[in-house]
Write a structure and sequence with these properties.
Helices cover 41% and strands 18% of the residues. The mean pLDDT is 94. Helix 3 (78-85) packs across helix 4 (99-109). The longest helix is centred in the C-terminal third of the chain and has 17 residues, at 349-365. The chain contains 14 helices and 14 strands. It has two domains: 2-171 and 348-365, Glycogen Phosphorylase B (Rossmann fold, 3-Layer(aba) Sandwich); 191-346, Glycogen Phosphorylase B (Rossmann fold). It is globular. It has helices at residues 16-30, 67-76, 78-85, 99-109, 119-126, 132-140, 150-159, 204-217, 231-240, 258-262, 279-286, 316-327, 332-346, 349-365, and strands spanning 2-6, 34-40, 49-52, 55-60, 90-94, 113-117, 144-147, 165-167, 191-195, 221-225, 247-251, 267-270, 291-294, 308-311. It is an alpha/beta fold.
């Protein structure tokens, strides 16, 4: 089978969507299928075309990391998408900005179109009156619609009554994300890993604000993995609260470093204010870390007291209580083992790839 993906961002970009599409594409290649990806030149110096582990990648112009930029990129990629669509058996648009290029590909080739609605960007825009009719149309256009969480599926179906949207959580490559030799030295105290880009929606501010309360109860050290526009403000806030010595800002790290970094931790914190299904949480769980997560979006679908704790979003005291309670559980190793077992059973990339192939074959069997 020849599969064409369209997505705004792709490896070597780091993030949940990027990781999802990369590992899904790699799984398809591993099963003997041919895969091409139309994406953007969002990072300086990336080649316009390359072969990455058997995945054919075509990158087109990218003006900015904004809704306008995504739209302009999508329109600018129409020609290359249409050309590759003539080669493809199936087209898969990854996130709502990719639907229009996917539709153009279907017009030119007759190949069926699948679309997956990812991320909190979809949820934010679904609340805006100007965006609702646009998203309604985009939800109805594919031959099969997927959503990365139950919440996104419900919102999409509310936008387009009568349209079925299948909830299918993003997966984790469990052969890569697993417990390995720690890459950070032992700090002598429990270490909290926070694999979050530093944007307001990811709620890292509330972890910083929770640190004084956590430290009053137990010594810990937190490691923030990721960068973003909030970094300077968060560093200043940590200094103001007197917890700077107990926080390390690692900045952006290569994807290949993540298993070793996560394996250096005692637990992970995902303090998001909005979230689909958090790939970062699943990756931490696959590395046998219990997870403390905000009760928002798709996070309660993957985290409960058998593998961690939930707290109300935007509440640093609730976050602190959850961390202290989890650290006092006394059996973090067993919690971490259950977390990995849950990911392997429910959210492995193998299971995700199998379901995608079922969908593709069903569409091809009925002629798109």
């Amino acid at each position: 089978m020849k599969i064409l993906f369209h997505c705004v961002y792709f490896s070597p970009e780091v993030g949940g969507l990027e990781s999802h599409v990369y590992y899904l594409a790699r799984a398809m290649v591993g099963r003997g299928h041919q895969v091409a990806v139309v994406t953007s030149r969002s990072l300086p110096g990336v080649p316009r075309e390359e072969d990455m582990e058997g995945i054919q990648i075509v990158r087109t112009w990218f003006p900015s990391r904004t809704p306008v930029g995504w739209t302009v990129h999508a329109l600018g990629s129409l020609r290359r998408t249409a050309t590759l669509a003539r080669w493809a058996d199936v087209i898969h648009a990854q996130a709502f900005p990719s639907v229009v290029p996917g539709v153009v590909g279907r017009w030119t080739s007759g190949a069926p179109l699948v679309a997956t609605f990812h991320t909190s960007h979809f949820l934010v825009r679904a609340r805006k009156p100007l965006w609702r009719p646009v998203l309604k149309r985009l939800v109805r256009l594919p031959d099969h619609a997927l959503a990365a969480s139950e919440e996104i599926a419900r919102v999409a179906e509310d936008l387009a009554p009568g349209t079925r949207v299948e909830a299918l959580a993003n997966g984790v490559e469990t052969s890569f994300f697993r417990r390995v030799e720690p890459s950070l030295p032992d700090p002598g105290v429990p270490r909290i890993m926070v694999p979050r880009r530093l944007f307001p929606k990811n709620g890292v501010e509330y972890l910083v604000r929770a640190m004084p309360s956590i430290l009053r109860e137990t010594p810990v050290h937190a490691v923030l993995i990721g960068d973003g526009p909030e970094r300077g403000r968060l560093e200043a806030l940590a200094a103001e609260l007197g917890v700077g010595a107990s926080l390390t800002f690692l900045g952006k790290r290569p994807h290949a470093d993540m298993p070793g970094l996560l394996s250096s931790g005692t637990l992970a914190v995902i303090p998001s204010l909005m979230e689909a299904t958090s790939v970062a949480a699943l990756e931490a769980m696959a590395c046998e870390l219990p997870v403390v997560a905000s009760r928002v979006g798709g996070l309660p679908e993957i985290v409960d007291e058998e593998v961690g704790r939930l707290f109300e979003p935007g509440d640093p005291e609730a976050l602190a209580r959850a961390v202290v309670e989890l650290l006092g559980d006394g059996d973090l190793v067993a919690l971490g083992a259950r977390a990995r077992e849950r990911v392997v059973d429910r959210w492995s990339n193998d299971r995700l790839a199998d379901r995608h192939l079922e969908i593709y074959r069903e569409l091809l069997g009925r002629g798109g």
